[in-house]
Amino acid sequence: MDITTTISALLTLAVFSFLYGDNPVYKFAERLLVGLAVGYALVINWQQTIIDRLYTPLFIDGRLALVVALVLGLLMFSRFKRSWAWLSGIPLAAMIGAGAGAALPAMLEARIFKQLSATVAVFHDASGAFEMFSAIVLLVGFVTTLGYFYFGVHRSNALAVSSKIGSYFLMIFFGATFGYTVMSRMSILIGRLDFLMRDWLGVIG
After folding, report:
1. What is the C-alpha separation between 158 and 164, in angstroms, rounded?
2. Does residue 144 lie in a domain region?
3. What is the arithmetic mean of pLDDT over 178-195?
4. Domain that residue 184 falls in
């Protein structure tokens, strides 16, 4: 048994100690995790962002257009001085604008066009009665769920019924998502117990 396995097992037990309540052992493991994660993220971002994407292209390769990115990045630090804090709004506005411009087409493609094409494709790919029934259920769920979020007109009897059916589909979705989340957490728990029993204690083969 090597020292890294022992340290990993002791830290796992330290996290599990939270089951008995908040205690100094759990706080130590929690803060150690946060500290290591922040340190690791800083090193990765320094190398992959500052060095690889700014310093090397600008000062070694001579891509002078990156001066704009350097200036915008330096303006973010103006928030530390109250009289200059307004300057940080310039890079923030550029970042939000560019992010929104890049995100809108991607979100339209992923959440609207892909959803519409997938809803229609199931009818084309259906090869039997069960597949066709599943396609019809999917179409009904898609239409009624959209109707549930349509608040532009007065809800007539037909729209009220459609919205009610859509709410049932939403509850099924939320229940399935919650069940998937619980099962994924159980999988992590089983993995850590298997590590403790197999790799650390060796009680199972």
Report:
1. 10
2. yes
3. 95
4. 126-205
